[in-house]
Amino acid sequence: MIYSREYETMAREDLEQLQVERLQITLNQVYRNVKFFKTLFDDKHIDISEVKSLEDLSRLPLTTKEDLKHSYPYEAFAVPLRDIVRIHSTSGTTGNPIVVGYTKNDLNIWSSLVGRVLSSVGIDNNHLVQIAFDYSQSTGGLGFHYGAEKLGASVIPASGEQILKQIKIMKDYRSSALISTPGYALHIASELEALGIDPHELNLSIGLFGAEPWSEKMRSEIESKLKIKAFDNYGLSEIIGPGVAYECECRCGMHVNEDHFIVEVINPDTLEVLPEGEEGELVFTTVTKQAFPLIRYRTGDISKIIPGSCDCSRTFRRIERVSGRIDDMLIIDGNNIFPSRIEELLFEIEGVEPHFQIILSREKGTTMIELKVEISPDFFSIDEIRRAEDFRKKITNHMSTRLGLRAKITLVEPKSIGRSSGGKVCRVVDLREDNI
Ligand SMILES: [Zn+2]
């Protein structure tokens, strides 16, 4: 279902006009109220009154996570604190987190945008929505919560519960939609299997997943193991949280809520804007946010804009599923390797579980790569060691011919690679001392 048809199916010309008008308002707002942007524009001799088209946007400077960290905690807010009604922050594993604020109007827009995401995947007021995202400082839990409530769905805020409790809730409360990370959905699937619960006993029909990169192969795993239809969506706290981009029933990319966010893709090295269809770093400009507007914010996420229109009648452009992060990129002896690409290739081989670990070490100046791969239970019987050896060679060749990656492959038992409580596998262990 299309939640706000007026905007989601707007003629491109009208939409672009709306974007320009909203952009000009936002530029005035940040120039007047945010010292960081005023200094940035003045230093670069930018006259914001000269921004008259979407093409002019590329003349404005880019902003980064580092810039925002310097504005900790409230320096980048464009309204006084008395107008702020909610404060979230990014996880901030190193140094200060990025603090994001919302006015009442921002929260209203946010829940409507999440409403679009949920409607698009078929969630409505008849659904029981189990949310397994964190409800604390990150935007996932509360973002989806208010969007689902706005639709009139019954929301089960199950975040923070242990996996067995999640499953009990799912079974007893008859949850029909699960919102979580894709990794957590697989974690639930394997626990169901261990408990001997047939997913048909559940009422689950829709899964909405995001917040970490995943592949088509992982989507099919989740769908076949949980007997649901799985959808992707995209968001980040700095821009608003969930609600930035979403899949429709066609599942051929994620529509960006372009009436609120202008999307660009840049070459992360040259910083030039790339044409549609070319992969690079996603950059967003918010055009309706009051409390925490951002101009040309570099997300660090790798994706591309998909050319052409979508069969669902939405006119918002689509971005491809995020394939990795600039900062996750591994540099192995001068080559750039994304763990997500290794994942994709592994999943092309039948018998591999969607869990693996890359261990990097250095011997005599050369990087040694070990790839630990979990094999599916029952794929090998105990006497099939020769078959296991052939299987190992198959993975070795696949990595070498498709990625040029010469790695030692180690087959390990299912569930033997350590998971966090959220079901996430530590993908990379870097034992190289200089860590480059
Ligand atoms: Zn569509």
UniProtKB/TrEMBL annotation:
AMP-dependent synthetase/ligase domain mapped to chain residues: 61-284
Gene Ontology MF terms: nucleotide binding; phenylacetate-CoA ligase activity
InterPro entries to which the protein is assigned, alphabetical: Adenylate-forming_Reductase, AMP-bd_C_sf, AMP-dep_Lig_C, AMP-dep_synth/lig_dom, ANL_N_sf, PA_CoA_ligase
Catalysed reactions listed for this entry: 2-phenylacetate + ATP + CoA = phenylacetyl-CoA + AMP + diphosphate
Pathway: Aromatic compound metabolism; phenylacetate degradation
Family: Belongs to the phenylacetyl-CoA ligase family.
Oligomeric form and interacting partners: Monomer.
Protein name: Phenylacetate-coenzyme A ligase
Source organism: Candidatus Thalassospirochaeta sargassi
Lineage, broadest ranks: Bacteria, Pseudomonadati, Spirochaetota, Spirochaetia, Spirochaetales
